[in-house]
Write a structure and sequence with these properties.
Strand content: under 5%
Helix content: 40-55%
């Protein structure tokens, strides 16, 4: 029996962003969502990620630069407690 987890899809992360945006009080995008967006840039262009997740590319690039120390893996994303 194969128990390997599939990589998280852009659709799943888009849904998490949509759900987060439903709350009326905002304190900024949670780190988990930023990490997921940065993770997607390993498979999609920054423009594609920003368009799907309704993010400003300047802010995403800044976040990517701050997270560049260690690459985000499938396991990192799969272990997020959404």
């Amino acid at each position: 029996m194969n128990t390997a987890k599939r990589p998280v899809s852009i659709d799943q992360i888009e849904e998490h962003f949509f759900n987060w945006r439903q709350y009326p009080i905002k304190t900024g995008i949670p780190e988990e969502l930023w990490m997921a967006a940065c993770y997607l840039t390993q498979r999609f262009s920054v423009a594609q990620v920003c368009k799907r997740l309704s993010l400003n590319p300047v802010y995403l690039r800044r976040k990517m630069a701050s997270m560049q120390i260690s690459p985000i893996t499938d396991d990192d994303i799969n272990n997020i407690q959404w």
